Protein backbone atom coordinates (compact mmCIF):
# COMPACT_ATOMS: atom_id res chain seq x y z
CA UNK A 1 0.00 0.00 0.00
CA UNK A 2 2.87 2.34 0.82
CA UNK A 3 4.45 1.68 -2.60
CA UNK A 4 1.15 2.31 -4.39
CA UNK A 5 0.77 5.62 -2.54
CA UNK A 6 4.30 6.76 -3.49
CA UNK A 7 3.74 5.79 -7.14
CA UNK A 8 0.44 7.71 -7.17
CA UNK A 9 2.19 10.76 -5.73
CA UNK A 10 4.89 10.45 -8.42
CA UNK A 11 2.28 10.35 -11.20
CA UNK A 12 0.46 13.37 -9.76
CA UNK A 13 3.76 15.27 -9.50
CA UNK A 14 4.54 14.44 -13.14
CA UNK A 15 1.09 15.63 -14.22
CA UNK A 16 1.61 18.86 -12.25
CA UNK A 17 4.97 19.45 -13.90
CA UNK A 18 3.39 18.84 -17.32
CA UNK A 19 0.64 21.32 -16.43
CA UNK A 20 3.21 23.99 -15.53
CA UNK A 21 5.41 23.31 -18.56
CA UNK A 22 2.46 23.31 -20.95
CA UNK A 23 -0.21 25.65 -19.52
CA UNK A 24 -3.83 24.77 -20.16
CA UNK A 25 -5.50 27.26 -22.49
CA UNK A 26 -9.17 28.09 -22.43
CA UNK A 27 -11.30 25.76 -24.54
CA UNK A 28 -12.00 27.39 -27.88
CA UNK A 29 -14.82 26.66 -30.32
CA UNK A 30 -12.44 25.03 -32.80
CA UNK A 31 -11.12 22.24 -30.55
CA UNK A 32 -12.50 18.73 -30.16
CA UNK A 33 -14.57 17.91 -27.08
CA UNK A 34 -13.43 14.29 -26.79
CA UNK A 35 -12.02 11.26 -28.54
CA UNK A 36 -12.75 7.54 -28.92
CA UNK A 37 -10.09 5.19 -30.28
CA UNK A 38 -9.44 1.50 -30.91
CA UNK A 39 -6.00 -0.07 -31.35
CA UNK A 40 -4.06 -3.24 -32.09
CA UNK A 41 -0.35 -3.85 -31.68
CA UNK A 42 2.33 -5.80 -29.86
CA UNK A 43 3.57 -5.80 -26.29
CA UNK A 44 7.10 -6.97 -25.60
CA UNK A 45 7.91 -8.23 -22.09
CA UNK A 46 11.29 -9.84 -21.30
CA UNK A 47 11.40 -13.08 -23.29
CA UNK A 48 8.01 -12.76 -24.98
CA UNK A 49 6.14 -10.64 -27.53
CA UNK A 50 2.35 -10.87 -27.67
CA UNK A 51 -0.49 -9.12 -29.46
CA UNK A 52 -2.47 -6.43 -27.65
CA UNK A 53 -5.73 -4.73 -28.45
CA UNK A 54 -8.09 -2.34 -26.75
CA UNK A 55 -9.56 1.11 -26.88
CA UNK A 56 -9.82 4.43 -25.14
CA UNK A 57 -12.33 7.15 -24.49
CA UNK A 58 -11.40 10.63 -23.38
CA UNK A 59 -12.50 14.19 -22.86
CA UNK A 60 -10.51 17.29 -23.78
CA UNK A 61 -9.75 20.04 -21.32
CA UNK A 62 -7.95 23.11 -22.52
CA UNK A 63 -6.87 23.19 -26.12
CA UNK A 64 -4.12 20.55 -25.88
CA UNK A 65 -4.95 18.05 -23.10
CA UNK A 66 -7.01 14.85 -23.25
CA UNK A 67 -7.94 12.97 -20.07
CA UNK A 68 -8.62 9.34 -21.04
CA UNK A 69 -9.50 5.85 -19.79
CA UNK A 70 -8.04 2.84 -21.58
CA UNK A 71 -8.82 -0.86 -21.15
CA UNK A 72 -6.70 -3.36 -23.10
CA UNK A 73 -6.17 -7.12 -23.40
CA UNK A 74 -2.90 -9.02 -23.96
CA UNK A 75 -3.23 -12.81 -24.58
CA UNK A 76 -0.06 -14.58 -23.42
CA UNK A 77 -0.60 -18.22 -24.34
CA UNK A 78 -0.92 -21.18 -22.00
CA UNK A 79 -4.22 -19.79 -20.70
CA UNK A 80 -2.59 -16.65 -19.30
CA UNK A 81 -3.42 -13.07 -20.28
CA UNK A 82 -3.09 -9.51 -19.00
CA UNK A 83 -6.00 -7.12 -18.65
CA UNK A 84 -4.89 -3.49 -18.30
CA UNK A 85 -7.19 -0.84 -16.84
CA UNK A 86 -5.37 2.46 -17.28
CA UNK A 87 -6.07 6.15 -17.18
CA UNK A 88 -3.90 8.98 -18.40
CA UNK A 89 -3.26 12.43 -19.74
CA UNK A 90 -2.35 13.11 -23.37
CA UNK A 91 -0.67 16.36 -24.47
CA UNK A 92 -0.96 17.29 -28.19
CA UNK A 93 1.88 19.48 -29.47
CA UNK A 94 1.00 22.48 -31.64
CA UNK A 95 2.00 22.07 -35.27
CA UNK A 96 1.50 24.16 -38.42
CA UNK A 97 0.34 21.02 -40.27
CA UNK A 98 -3.31 20.49 -39.25
CA UNK A 99 -3.38 16.88 -40.50
CA UNK A 100 -0.43 15.80 -38.33
CA UNK A 101 -0.58 16.22 -34.51
CA UNK A 102 2.21 14.66 -32.40
CA UNK A 103 1.38 13.77 -28.79
CA UNK A 104 2.93 12.59 -25.52
CA UNK A 105 1.04 10.70 -22.83
CA UNK A 106 1.47 9.41 -19.28
CA UNK A 107 -0.60 6.53 -17.90
CA UNK A 108 -1.22 4.74 -14.64
CA UNK A 109 -3.51 2.01 -13.40
CA UNK A 110 -3.72 -1.71 -12.87
CA UNK A 111 -2.52 -4.73 -14.85
CA UNK A 112 -4.19 -8.04 -13.95
CA UNK A 113 -2.95 -11.53 -14.83
CA UNK A 114 -4.56 -14.76 -13.51
CA UNK A 115 -1.09 -16.29 -12.95
CA UNK A 116 0.74 -13.23 -11.58
CA UNK A 117 -2.12 -11.36 -9.89
CA UNK A 118 -2.48 -7.58 -9.77
CA UNK A 119 0.31 -5.17 -10.64
CA UNK A 120 0.42 -1.40 -10.36
CA UNK A 121 1.12 -0.15 -13.88
CA UNK A 122 2.50 3.18 -15.05
CA UNK A 123 4.20 4.43 -18.18
CA UNK A 124 4.69 7.04 -20.86
CA UNK A 125 4.52 7.11 -24.63
CA UNK A 126 4.48 9.21 -27.75
CA UNK A 127 2.91 9.08 -31.17
CA UNK A 128 1.07 11.11 -33.75
CA UNK A 129 -2.48 11.58 -34.91
CA UNK A 130 -2.79 11.71 -38.69
CA UNK A 131 -6.16 13.09 -39.74
CA UNK A 132 -7.72 11.37 -42.76
CA UNK A 133 -10.92 13.40 -42.39
CA UNK A 134 -12.17 16.33 -40.33
CA UNK A 135 -12.68 14.28 -37.17
CA UNK A 136 -11.02 10.90 -37.66
CA UNK A 137 -7.71 9.34 -38.59
CA UNK A 138 -4.95 6.94 -37.61
CA UNK A 139 -2.81 7.00 -34.49
CA UNK A 140 0.51 5.06 -34.33
CA UNK A 141 2.16 5.04 -30.87
CA UNK A 142 5.14 3.70 -28.93
CA UNK A 143 4.77 3.30 -25.15
CA UNK A 144 6.88 2.07 -22.24
CA UNK A 145 4.91 0.53 -19.36
CA UNK A 146 6.13 -0.74 -15.99
CA UNK A 147 4.30 -3.58 -14.22
CA UNK A 148 5.25 -3.21 -10.57
CA UNK A 149 4.49 -6.44 -8.70
CA UNK A 150 5.16 -7.05 -5.02
CA UNK A 151 8.27 -9.20 -5.69
CA UNK A 152 9.71 -6.94 -8.37
CA UNK A 153 8.54 -5.68 -11.70
CA UNK A 154 9.02 -5.80 -15.42
CA UNK A 155 9.16 -3.35 -18.29
CA UNK A 156 6.91 -3.67 -21.32
CA UNK A 157 7.34 -1.95 -24.68
CA UNK A 158 4.24 -1.45 -26.80
CA UNK A 159 3.96 -0.62 -30.49
CA UNK A 160 0.36 0.19 -31.37
CA UNK A 161 -1.65 1.31 -34.35
CA UNK A 162 -5.05 2.87 -33.75
CA UNK A 163 -8.00 4.51 -35.40
CA UNK A 164 -9.57 7.51 -33.65
CA UNK A 165 -12.66 9.68 -33.91
CA UNK A 166 -12.91 13.12 -32.28
CA UNK A 167 -16.23 14.52 -31.06
CA UNK A 168 -17.03 18.18 -31.65
CA UNK A 169 -15.30 20.39 -34.17
CA UNK A 170 -11.59 20.69 -34.75
SSE-based structural type: mainly beta
H/E series: HEEEEEEEE
* Helix percentage: 10-25%
Uncertain stretches of 5 or more adjacent residues: 1-30
- What shape does the CA trace take? elongated
Kindly report the CATH topology.
Porin
Head-to-tail CA distance between termini: 42 Å
With strands numbered from the N-terminus, the spatial order across the biggest sheet is 1-2-3-4-5-6-7-8
What's the count of strands?
Answer: 8
**Residue share in β-strands:** over 45%
CATH class: Mainly Beta
Summed up, the domain count is 1
Q: How large, in whole angstroms, is the Cα Rg?
A: 16 Å
Q: Overall mean pLDDT score?
A: 84
Description:
There is one protein chain. The protein starts with a helix and ends with a strand. The chain has an eight-stranded antiparallel beta barrel. It contains one helix and eight strands, in the order αββββββββ. A hairpin with a 2-residue loop joins β1 and β2. It has a single domain, classed as Porin (Beta Barrel). The chain is mainly β.
